[in-house]
Write a structure and sequence with these properties.
It is a single chain. The protein is of the alpha/beta class and 173 residues long. It contains five helices and nine strands. The strands form three sheets. A four-stranded antiparallel beta sheet has the order 6-7-9-8. It has a three-stranded parallel beta sheet with strand order 4-3-5, with helices on both faces. A two-stranded antiparallel ribbon has the order 1-2. Helix 2 packs across helix 3. The protein is globular and about 45 Å long. The mean pLDDT is 82.
Length: 173
């Protein structure tokens, strides 16, 4: 039986360099989208059942949905402009393992743990606090991931199998 994710992978193999998403002045190929899905997926815990997604309708949301499907989990989408209580109730009732979101919506998810780290602790200029999440990752992927914007050597973890990811890549510049 084909799954949504297996069908996506077939399209990636056949059209790796074809545009998958055109968003404003940004174009992403199927291959690039697949790589983004892999980066998100490697940040998930070993067993995933249910993941909340509170994001704007854009490339990162599509990649997040595909990442959840790749892991065999279910996703629980919530519009970022929903009232905070409604988002909290939806995620609690669905018993999500964690929530994927963007920096702008972090205050709506205050009941879910987010860590703040000064930029200079991640090797960046300044002392502004960044919202980050630490993820255990396959050591083979860590080198590649660290080359991507927003991915850093683990903060307070083994750098061989953990990475730190900034929740808002725009703020690292």
């Amino acid at each position: 039986m084909d799954t949504i994710y297996s069908l996506f992978q077939k399209v990636v193999k056949e059209h790796e360099n074809a545009p998958a998403i055109i968003e404003n002045d940004r174009t992403m190929t199927f291959g690039e989208l697949s790589n983004m899905v892999d980066m998100i997926t490697c940040s998930f815990p070993q067993e995933v059942h249910s993941i909340g997604i509170v994001m704007r309708h854009r490339t990162e949301m599509i990649a997040s949905i595909l990442a959840v499907l790749k892991c065999g989990g279910r996703y629980v989408p919530a519009e970022p402009d929903f009232p905070t209580g409604r988002i909290h109730d939806m995620m609690t009732e669905a018993q999500v393992d964690f929530v994927l979101t963007e920096h702008a919506f972090a205050p709506k998810l205050s009941s879910f743990p987010i860590r703040y780290v000064p930029k200079n602790k991640l090797g960046l200029q300044g002392e502004e606090m960044l919202e980050v999440v630490d993820f255990k990752c396959d050591p083979i992927l860590i080198g590649t991931l660290r080359e991507e914007p927003g991915f850093f050597p683990a903060y307070h973890m083994s750098k061989d199998s953990w990475i730190t990811v900034a929740l808002d890549v725009q703020r690292i510049r």
